[in-house]
Structures
1.
Amino acid sequence: MKNKISPHELSADERINNFKEVVSGYSRQEAIEEARRCLQCNDPKCIGGCPVGIDIKKFISQVVKGDFKGAFYTIKEKNNFPSICGRVCPAEYQCRKACLFTKKGSGCAAENSINIHFLERFVADYGIKHNLQLPLKANPKLTNYRVAVVGSGPAGLCIAGELARVGMKVTIFEGLHQSGGVLRYGIPSFRLPRNILNYEIDYLKNIGVEIVNNIVIGRTKTLDELKKEFSAIFLGLGAGIPSFLGIKGENLANVYSANEFLTRVNLMEADKFPDYQTPVNIGKNIIVVGGGNTAIDSARVALRMQAINGIEPDVSILYRRTEQEMPARRLEVIHAKEEGVNFRFLTQPVEFISDNKGFTKEVESVKCELGKPDLSGRKRPIAKKGTNFRIKADLAIIAVGLRANKLLTSLTPSLKVDKWGDIIVDKSMQASLPGVYAGGDIVGGEGTIIEAMGMAKKAAASIIINISNN
Ligand code: FAD
Ligand code: SF4
């Protein structure tokens, strides 16, 4: 959603040729001007809309006074990585939706609701520029304890910072060769530049967090082995297993899961092939199936890959509901449209059609209409009989959801999981095994970065209390 005081953006023509960050931050003057629009409500609903309860009213009032340092510390009390959340939080469904400027009951923030996320980003970038960090508060009672964190996504990074700040020795084990989880392999750098992510990870290393990459817990080392070495364990395994449509032809060549496609480009640098040795196929007519952030990211990455490889951009998103039901961030949808991504709403693929070499060449789809709301609260799409049609698709990317990665839990039967494979935790984020905690996408929930970090903070507090009481 573009509104009131929007920061500068690269033009669509310029940005589809590269992976440079699309949105620049506010200038000092723009930030103060935007902050001045805030009404400083007596009952600031925006705070309740933030999943970690940042004192939004306070930090905005500090921005108005030019006290950016104070604003930084106010945000940091609740949010460990505002530079990341200020860029990618779905604020239009959270704090901005709760802001007084948005009418009660609206599905999404009003255009003129305060740009809380852009203000947060401005303050966070000010903090990075001036190397501001919360002071460490080492607790001598805790410094001899070691905690293992499995997974280096936002949940793992957040808890590592929380525990290292009080002096605990934290080791993160990460299966991939680089850290950051989805922040690295999923979200493209034109939304979250890697220097921002690297800054946050380097800070953790500076305060003593050890990160061991290329270790898959469950395989390379078991949970039982970790338990012998560490006083507590946090599992931030994420939801890295892609869902598929389950339709005919989905196993044809050039039908990718969004995870594989994005990982090849974002983590393995396929855009720089052959300098980097991971290739990715690029089609002339690409379709992406889905309506969330993963679908939009896949489409925008695919479009850039076409442009970089001298192919006329032709990417379509097929979504079985309408734009209104799309869970993706609104701004990314607008950006995707500006860049030339086609949207085919109320469209559901039913079969991929093969060429004579086993590659997809077309997708057959049906038109849908919306029925009554389903369990997700969104109107259920109903396929309309006799509406089948085909469109060219020599490459397809399936982005219809992610599920729990069951590698570790299937090898550790004593760890209780629900029917979806998510780890079951109590209110303190403790799993069924004593001393083992979990948080982030592996325990379910909204599947947002801020929520994963909120759970990690809760788990950190529980670990500190439990260890202090023993
Ligand atoms: P993850 O980020 O998934 O990290 C888990 C890490 O654990 C991974 O690095 C994985 O390799 C590692 N791991 C797993 N098992 C093991 C093991 N056994 N041993 C060692 N390591 C292991 N949310 C937003 O709020 N805004 C957005 O704009 C947004 N965009 C998104 C775009 C994409 C493409 C995707 C996929 C998701 C997006 N999300 C977004 C959702 C958000 O990224 C996730 O909710 C969040 O990353 C979850 O954090 P996590 O720490 O639980 O897991
Ligand atoms: Fe400012 Fe909106 Fe929060 Fe009121 S609800 S304090 S206007 S950001």
2.
Amino acid sequence: MAYRITLLPGDGIGPEILAVTVDVLKVIAPPFDLEFVFQEALIGGAAIDATGEPLPAETLEKCRNSDAVLLAAIGGYKWDNLPRHQRPETGLLGLRAGLGLFANLRPATILPQLIDASTLKKEVVEGVDIMVVRELTGGIYFGQPKGIFETETGEKRGVNTMAYTESEIDRIAKVAFEIAQKRSGKLCSVDKANVLDVSQLWRDQVIKMSANYPDVELSHLYVDNAAMQLVRAPKQFDTIVTGNLFGDILSDAAAMLTGSIGMLPSASLGESNPGVFEPVHGSAPDIAGQDKANPLAQVLSAAMMLRYAFDQPEAASKIEDAVQEALNQGYRTGDIMSEGMKLVGCRAMGDVLLKILA
Ligand code: IPM
Ligand code: MG
């Protein structure tokens, strides 16, 4: 089976971690009778430098015409002060909207090998296995009106709008219930229904949807309490579903339970368009080009691609097992380094994986 994959290396450490991942995919293909056809496209700062825009039309077109998109990371100091429509982040949001990727899956699983890398106590994080399902194309990120306007007195007023329609809530709730069903059957919906009308509608719709999933145990938390519970007793959570902004914040918190954000993959999925698979971490401009980056979140994102986009769970597991094995053998990049382990760079970590997979 042949799959077309669009590669978006982006900025900072992006090209380094994506190069390692492509090598891993090339090795995994033959034993599973898979064929990958890669094409590259520009996004983020790299695209701004080359074309003046963070998401050139050609990039979106290439992504649409592929079976999946592997994105590395975008952004850097260089582009931080450009007008908003020219920022790397705007390119990423345009990609999500352009491909209709309303469901963002962010697993936070602690690996036993890295338990000491977490800033939380071992007994708190041991066994943590959470899936954050974040709505990705609505809410305050996209609601209208938005902008900085001048009032009658000449004072400036910044405005964003948090809005969700019933159908937007229904489709993300459906994804979350189905994921919860396949996991431990527990779903926690996070909102701010004690204050926000948009959250009240969210909660009402999620409750309505729950009638279709009698086997899933649904609970609700306000977002402030959810943030507290995530660091207090994270093992109470299995699947979490929430809106765009709350999901952005809670997924970073959940990521830190696992010790390193450098280990976490994500999948962004829509109804029919190709999904985008990318690490949760950013472009780490401070270590870019130095061969220090941890490529494992990107590699694990490719595993998610195999599982969710290509329905190749065995190939996905093979990659995930290889990552575990590399850690078992004591190899660590700087971000997950601890005493007695073998410090390696990005490329060398990739070579360890290739050797394990060979
Ligand atoms: C994320 C990031 C993005 C977001 C930024 C880079 C636009 O923080 O993917 O979590 O806010 O969604
Ligand atoms: Mg974020």
